[in-house]
Amino acid sequence: MKITTHLVSAPLHTPFVTALRTATHAESLLVEISDGERSGWGEAPQVWKVTGDSLAGSQACIEGPIATALDGLGPDDLTEALRRVQGAAVGNFGAKDAVDVALHDLAARRRGQTLHGFLGSTVDVVRTDMTLSVGDADALAEAGKARVADGFDVLKIKVGTDAAGDVERVRRVRDAIGPEPRLRLDANQGWTRRDAVTVIRALEDAGCAIELVEQPVAAADLEGMAWVTDRVGTPILADESVYGVRDLVNVIRHGAADLVNVKLAKCGGLAPARTLLELARAHGLGAIVGCMMEGPVGVGAAAALVSAYPTTAVNDLDAAWWLREPPVTDGIRYDGALIHLPSAPGLGVTGLTS
């Protein structure tokens, strides 16, 4: 198998603002693994403020220890290849994710199957929410109305930059979109535990019907998140607190959250993501599958996972919708809140756009 890496930078049609960062481009490392006739694709996004993985670091990891670990394996040695990828280096989850997905993609193509079919599913459409990035109350309200008009019925509001103003911003969005669309919040670790309880209770008292609140406090503060979970009625979703199995076990032991957000770039690919989803289900936790600021390769892999492993709430797979110019041809297609998975083999990606 030949491994090739491609650095890509895809512009967004609208800046994406969270409590942690502002993005105008999706910076990724695309990985192509070829058997000489077909290529499987994977994606390692660069998200300094969440994973800490850089494109340069991911590239060095893939072309160094991961390539060495895979040396001598054939394209049909999938189980052993995936095991070696996870053991090739400590951390470097984005690099592991990209290679894991590329190996799955290549295996599916060699069998003439879609990736979701290879994972055991015949479902070719999955739903996503839509994120409203951080902004003032007027901007958020207008964005909320626009996204509902675009066909999205689950909206996620980025909060956490200003606890004092978060309640008003969320209330304005609810007033603008009406009672039917679901609203969820993502604080991206931006609140203290007391701010989180104050804001969430105020929204509950105001009847804003918040579906869930994602990562209200710092990732390492599981006691704080458990403190919040115990004091509010709104379900709490752990995101940055959970990378791998050990993290999820700690969340479960602390009773820190009601749900977990599984992301391929956090856990290292499809194989560990399936383990996390099964572990959450076994312990009665809800789950969704999310994404970083990724393109059709990364989001397409996550959507294929959702197709085969249904989650308990609408998933968070809108990242590729934000791209003005995707870096690859073909793959997934958005139709409002629906993501249509390709009928072509693997991820359906046919190459780079340039």
CATH topology of the largest domain: TIM Barrel
Q: Strand tally, please?
A: 15
CATH class of the largest domain: Alpha Beta
CATH architecture of the largest domain: Alpha-Beta Barrel
Name the strands of the widest sheet in spatial order.
Answer: 5-6-7-8-9-10-11
Reported for the largest beta sheet, the result is: 7 strands, parallel
Structure annotation, total helices: 12
What is the helix fraction of residues, given as a range? 25-40%
Poorly predicted spans: none
**What percent of residues are in strands?**
15-25%
The whole-angstrom Rg is: 20 Å
Which superfamily, in CATH terms, is the homologous superfamily of the largest domain? Enolase-like C-terminal domain
Helix/sheet category: alpha/beta
**Could you spell the SSE succession in H and E letters?**
EEEHHHHEEHEHEHEHEHEHHEHEEEE
The residue-averaged pLDDT reads: 95
What is the first-to-last residue Cα distance?
23 Å
Whole-number total of structural domains? 2
Please tell me what the overall shape is: globular
Q: Brief overview, please?
A:
With 354 residues, this protein is α/β, with parallel strands linked by helices. The protein is 39% helix and 23% strand. The chain folds into 2 domains: 2-112, Enolase-like, domain 1; 119-352, TIM Barrel (Alpha-Beta Barrel).
Question: Can you offer a commentary on this structure?
Answer:
- By secondary structure, this protein is an alpha/beta fold.
- 39% of the residues lie in helices and 23% in strands.
- The longest helix has 18 residues, at 93-110.
- The relative contact order is 0.16.
- The mean pLDDT is 95.
